């Protein structure tokens, strides 16, 4: 069998060569995390099929955004790879999909009551959300060669196991990462006690379980389900992890606290992992290129079409009372552009009004107004910013022009999540560039057939942003975003309940140590080694050169997972 974009495995190890429409990418034999930045529409999903076909016996985990995409891959595997005769090939029982779709309820029930069954399957297919919210070790371990114990949150230990699946595949970048468990801040009091010094500290694991069973289990504020065995295992894992997170939670000012796992956790810095973790991201060069946990594998030329960017007058604001005359004039201008199939992109809502999930009243208003003006319905395709079809879809691949109706930016908090999730220093500008590159490549550019395409954009877009988009699509060039400023660590400190003088000293320690700043921002363990002289130089002074004099500082840092080692 030959796929549209085949994979050629290395003879020296688990690496392979991908031959895509945009060029060739070589994945090394060396295990670890890789961002495969191949360009949107390059054939990455087809190459994944080739990899699955050739390497399924070594254990494959396939993760994708939506259930519909999950089903497509499952159906392809069943139709093309499963030996429906009596041969020795792949059997249908070797493949398991975890989905709430009605046709897969039997598999879902099996998984819920016996999650260990996953570890015997050659191919597992799940959504991105499922991966982060269920028991990760069951997804990763393949045909266990040693005891499988409840996950203790130690990724260094888990990812070094020799019995992991050979390939952990994320088709598209997981950007919506939900917590493994979330707790109300008010419930932390039940798991705390006062020590001899009057500090609130975490109860023992035994007492946590005792108090949970007595006061929370089965009540309205119980964050755990109990119906299935997988729920009960997840509950036990979460309760066992509370002591690990408790001190840092107590410094948090939020109403809710969570245990959240991230892609960066799968590839801990300085640790050797025993599997290939592959994130297939068409525009990985735009916002994941500086990851400390993943290596970027890129192609030189992503797009071969001519994409013309054309400005149109707008005059509309998203907030405040809408000027209907200006809106009407804008609709006139847009309707005049739709002389061939066009993808129109607008805001989901205006003036603070919110539509229900998956729907946009404002978009429907735009549709109605354009049809009133005689636009051919066969030429009119609409979506809104933030819709699920802004990426990972081929539905608009035969369209030659896209009309961007109104500037749109992602909130800074979402960019901060990306930085934490992948160990990057991605800026909000780079995040926006990634988002719009995904959106624009929904149209025919993704076919890589050297066509001519138009991007109409309203005059509220920043011209420097448009220049970057132009350079990216037409010159295969990424223009410098200017000065980068990494402030996540400072924001993290601001959100902690730390005495002002101690916070000032922590800032002094981190000021000239990028690794420490990253550890603070990403909630990771780190060891900071200093001398008494160094502490004095940076302004952290005590009346005597004794380690005990720095005990309060050391204990505060320890709650942040940072160990302060003071050498003589």
Short note summarizing the structure:
By secondary structure, the chain is of the alpha/beta class. The chain contains 20 helices and 21 strands.
List the topology elements:
Blueprint: E1 7-9, E2 16-20, E3 23-27, E4 32-37, H1 44-55, E5 60-64, H2 67-80, E6 95-97, H3 105-113, E7 123-127, H4 128-133, H5 136-140, H6 155-158, E8 167-171, E9 181-184, E10 192-194, E11 200-202, H7 205-215, H8 229-250, E12 256-259, H9 263-266, E13 276-280, H10 284-287, E14 295-298, E15 306-312, H11 324-337, E16 342-346, H12 361-372, E17 380-384, E18 401-404, H13 412-422, H14 428-440, E19 452-458, H15 463-474, H16 488-494, H17 500-510, H18 514-522, E20 526-531, H19 532-537, H20 551-559, E21 562-567
Parallel strand pairs: 4-13, 4-14, 5-7, 5-8, 6-7, 8-13, 15-19, 16-17, 16-18, 18-19, 20-21
Antiparallel strand pairs: 1-2, 2-3, 9-12, 10-11
């Amino acid at each position: 069998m030959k796929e549209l974009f085949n994979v050629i495995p290395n003879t020296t190890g688990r690496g392979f060569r991908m031959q895509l429409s945009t060029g060739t990418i070589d994945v090394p034999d060396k295990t670890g995390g890789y961002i495969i930045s191949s360009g949107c529409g390059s054939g990455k999903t087809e190459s994944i099929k080739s990899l699955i076909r050739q390497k399924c016996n070594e254990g494959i985990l396939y993760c994708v955004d939506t259930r519909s995409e999950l089903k497509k891959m499952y159906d392809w595997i069943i139709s093309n790879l499963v030996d429906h005769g009596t041969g020795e090939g792949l059997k249908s029982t070797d493949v398991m999909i975890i989905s709430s779709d009605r046709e897969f309820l039997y598999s879902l029930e099996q998984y819920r009551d016996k999650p260990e069954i996953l570890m015997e399957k050659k191919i597992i297919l799940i959504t991105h959300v499922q991966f982060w919210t269920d028991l990760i070790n069951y997804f990763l371990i393949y045909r266990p060669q040693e005891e499988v114990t409840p996950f203790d949150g130690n990724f260094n230990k888990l990812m070094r196991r020799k019995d992991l699946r050979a390939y952990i595949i994320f088709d598209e970048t997981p950007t919506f990462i939900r917590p493994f468990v979330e707790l109300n801040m008010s419930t932390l009091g039940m798991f705390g006690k006062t020590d001899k010094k009057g500090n609130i500290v975490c109860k023992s694991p035994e007492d946590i379980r005792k108090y949970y069973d007595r006061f929370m289990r089965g009540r309205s504020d119980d964050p755990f389900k109990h119906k299935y065995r997988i729920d009960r295992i997840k509950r036990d894992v979460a309760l066992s992890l509370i002591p690990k997170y408790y001190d840092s939670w107590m410094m948090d000012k939020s109403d809710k606290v969570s245990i959240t796992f991230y892609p960066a956790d799968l590839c801990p810095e300085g640790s050797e992992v025993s599997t290939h973790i592959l994130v297939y991201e068409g525009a990985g060069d735009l916002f994941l290129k500086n990851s400390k946990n993943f290596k970027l594998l890129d192609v030189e030329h992503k797009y071969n079409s001519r994409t013309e960017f054309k400005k149109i007058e707008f005059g509309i604001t998203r907030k405040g009372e809408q000027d209907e005359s200006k809106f009407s004039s804008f609709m006139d201008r847009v309707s005049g552009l739709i002389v061939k199939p066009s993808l129109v992109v607008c805001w989901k809502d205006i003036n603070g009004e919110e539509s229900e999930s998956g729907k946009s009243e404002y978009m429907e208003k735009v549709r109605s107004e354009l049809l009133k003006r005689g636009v051919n319905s066969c030429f009119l395709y609409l979506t809104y910013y933030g819709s699920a079809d802004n990426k990972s879809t081929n539905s608009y691949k035969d369209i030659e022009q896209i009309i961007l109706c109104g500037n749109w930016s992602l909130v800074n908090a979402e960019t901060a999540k990306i930085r934490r999730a992948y160990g990057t220093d991605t800026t909000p500008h780079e995040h926006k560039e990634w988002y719009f590159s995904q959106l624009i490549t929904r149209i025919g550019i993704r076919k890589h057939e050297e066509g001519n395409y138009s991007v109409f954009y309203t005059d509220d877009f920043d011209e420097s942003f448009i220049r970057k988009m132009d350079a990216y699509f037409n010159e295969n060039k990424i223009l410098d975003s200017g000065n980068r400023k990494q402030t996540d660590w400072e924001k993290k400190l601001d959100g902690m309940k730390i005495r002002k003088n101690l916070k000032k000293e922590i800032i002094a320690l981190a000021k000239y140590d990028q690794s420490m700043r990253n550890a603070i921002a990403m909630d990771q363990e780190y060891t900071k080694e200093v001398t008494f002289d160094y502490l004095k130089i940076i302004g952290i002074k005590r009346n005597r050169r004794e380690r005990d004099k720095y005990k309060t500082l050391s204990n505060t840092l320890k709650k942040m997972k940072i160990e302060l080692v003071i050498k003589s």
